[in-house]
Write a structure and sequence with these properties.
Elements (H helix, E strand, L loop, with lengths): L1 E8 L3 H12 L4 E4 L6 H5 L2 H17 L16 H25 L3 E3 L3 E5 L2 E4 L2 E10 L3 E3 L12 E2 L13 E5 L3 H12 L3 E5 L11 H13 L3 E3 L4 E5 L2 E4 L4 E2 L3 E4 L3 E3 L9 E2 L10 H13 L10 E3 L4 E6 L11 E6 L4 H5 L6 E7 L2 E9 L2 H13 L4 H4 L10 H9 L2
Parallel strand pairs: 1-2, 1-6, 2-3, 6-17, 8-15, 9-10, 9-15, 10-11
Antiparallel strand pairs: 4-5, 5-6, 7-16, 12-13, 13-14, 18-19, 19-22, 20-21, 21-22
Helix pairs in contact: 1-7, 3-4, 3-5
Bound molecules: flavin-adenine dinucleotide.
Length: 411
Amino acid sequence: METFDIGIIGAGPAGYTAAFQARKLGKSVVLFEKDFVGGVCLNRGCIPTKTILHSAELFEEMKLSEELGLVVSDISVDFAKVIERKNKVVEKLRKGLELGLKSAKVTVVNEFAEIVDAKTIKAGENIYSCSEIICAIGSEPAIPPCFKFDGEFVLNSDDILNLETLPKSVVIAGSGAIGCEWARIFSAFGVEVVVVELAEHLLPLADIEVSKRVERIFKSKKIKFYTKTFVEKIENGAVILSNGEVLNPDFILMATGRKPRMHEKIEGVRYIGDVAGSIQLAHFAIKEAFEHVAEINFEKDLVPAVIYGCPEIAWVGKREQDLEVGTFEKSTHLISALGKSHCDNCTEGFIKILSQDGLVVGAHIVSKEASSLIQQLTIAIQNKIPVEKLKEVCFAHPTYSEGIFDCICNL
Ligand SMILES: Cc1cc2nc3c(=O)[nH]c(=O)nc-3n(C[C@H](O)[C@H](O)[C@H](O)COP(=O)(O)OP(=O)(O)OC[C@H]3O[C@@H](n4cnc5c(N)ncnc54)[C@H](O)[C@@H]3O)c2cc1C
């Protein structure tokens, strides 16, 4: 029986971050992974989707190249190559991570692991004794109980990463981050897309004005969507909606959430990342690992959310619908008012900042580079930097950040 200070099950963002942090503290670490290191994020989530999205966006932009004075003829998509590139990006990053774990002297065991008790793990034929166990086994796609993934017509976000050809038409159930990103990918590649959302608006977790803007963007991109509607039945290649509409797509992507991959919690074991069933985001998983192992706390109410695509969508803190009318101030700046957006031919969107008592409490951005812009406001909110102090900061020109400054100046 081998003995370690820490045994970690699952080598996704939560697990590998915990492993690196524990090694930094000089602890001996064994990390179990039944599949590939990097977890969902690297192998089936964040990285592969954003890699495919990059090809899709470039393809969409190239169609407008003449406007930019570039003559490109006969543009077409070789989807097999798009997937091949995605696989290469994932492999390259995975090799980097494997190497990093090796140099940090983390013992990686490529086996399915089971927790025997709060200090014992079983993997294959071996038993490992660990002073502490961290369970970071992540989550898996969820589907309403009346349906089943079949890998052919009813697909999940794993299945869709390995399509060999582009479909002609798809239905996407759910308009959260995964649903919206895939809607944008497919539509940019010229696929007919219909999104079906149960809530009143697309991206139901977003600020109401962001949701409405996304609906406008989807319309402009000819992405059809139904809100306050659900998929009632799937039969013989048809998707029947609660509004009576019958659709005949090549397949349906069920982007209806993810569920923790866990049966029952064992006392004395620490659960972090998606398996803990809180916020299912890679950066949340990473921060939980830092908090648990390195004792670096973070504000759980201030976790930025990002939806990728053109333009990006990002937010942090309070939404307008969370605040009582008359208790807050709001400042909105259109992206089209920024010189940089015209240089980039990307004028869609806005920056909206909400403040209370002279402090920023929420920020909502639809813009190119929103994923990076949101970080500036996350830092401002977390550190309670007064609006008046933010006005003293010098923002570079021409940038999208100037939109933040313009917003701040109107509060
Ligand atoms: C399509 C898609 C896009 C996404 N995009 C983003 C994004 O842009 N930004 C973002 O922040 N988040 C994104 N996410 C979410 C993100 O991937 C997850 O929040 C993150 O991967 C969670 O990390 P984790 O370490 O908790 O779990 P995981 O990444 O799920 O890792 C868990 C690991 O545990 C292993 N495992 C499970 N059981 C066992 C066992 N018994 N023994 C050994 N190993 C085991 C699994 O094989 C897996 O590798 C996306 C997810 C999907 C599906």
